[in-house]
């Protein structure tokens, strides 16, 4: 497949995903979306599944339930009915059925501590994680307004140590193009503390900082991270510590913060990438999209 075709298909798939994030609380009409994007419904579904590994409806369901799982613990004043509507469900019954099927517990059980039990089981599946205890209470986040970020990317299926191979491929691309001024960004399309690790969409991104960059190899597609308001958490550590931070941010900090997270994906900007460093140490800023309640 030619590079331009790959880029065009990737842009279509990413535009669909961004549309889902933006309108997740509505009845998303794929027929109208295909007309708007000037792509047949059949090709829209095929392109999206080729890019993300699952169909559009599966993705909508996953994002709605991830949003609901966060709102249930960060918005204590909303009823189950309120949350089901906010997340785009036509009835409370359909929401309860989908939630129980996905998390194997009711929303009420989730609110009453089931969320931590569920995420702890996911963390148990991480291999060779750091045993060091981190005092997350010492981490003081800052609230920042981040601009839109565009970067070249490689998509990775799963959240495990095989991510290293994806970063190595991206690093090879960087060296091929003699890029010296850039940022490495990890985008989490799925929240790894509420999504089975093998199903997580992890995206390794390089943002070129130089305005004029003559690429020798421009085969990689471009992805846009939307602008927005974020809570920024700075951390250094070893493999496995990032997901521990994410668990604390969502299931402890967010609950007491007075904020809600949005459906936009969170991301990390590396100052030092543990998947590429010899000592396996990372230094990063983790950005959680938020809004004031």
Task: Describe the protein's architecture and organization.
Helix 1 (3-22) packs parallel to helix 4 and helix 7 (107-124) packs antiparallel against helix 9. The chain has 293 residues and is an alpha+beta fold. The N and C termini lie far apart (46 Å). The chain is globular, with a radius of gyration of 19 Å. The protein is 43% helix and 22% strand. It folds into 2 domains: 3-112, Orthogonal Bundle (Arc Repressor Mutant, subunit A); 136-292, Multidrug-efflux Transporter 1 Regulator Bmrr, Chain A (Alpha-Beta Barrel), CATH 3.20.80. Strands 1, 2, 3, 4, 5, 6, 7, 8 and 9 form a 9-stranded antiparallel sheet that branches.
CATH topology-level fold name of the largest domain: Multidrug-efflux Transporter 1 Regulator Bmrr, Chain A
What overall geometry do the principal axes of the alpha carbons give?
globular
Full CATH superfamily name of the largest domain: Regulatory factor, effector binding domain
Give the uncertain stretches in residue-range form: none
Under the CATH scheme, the architecture of the largest domain is Alpha-Beta Barrel
Largest sheet: 9 strands, antiparallel
How much strand content do the residues show? 15-25%
The CATH class of the largest domain, by name, is: Alpha Beta
Tally of distinct domains: 2
End-to-end distance: 46 Å
Can you write the helix and strand succession as a string? HHHHHHHEEHEEEEHEEE
How many helix segments?
9
Computed over alpha carbons, the radius of gyration is 19 Å
The overall strand count is 9
Helix content: 40-55%
Structural class, from helix and strand content? alpha+beta
Arithmetic mean pLDDT: 90
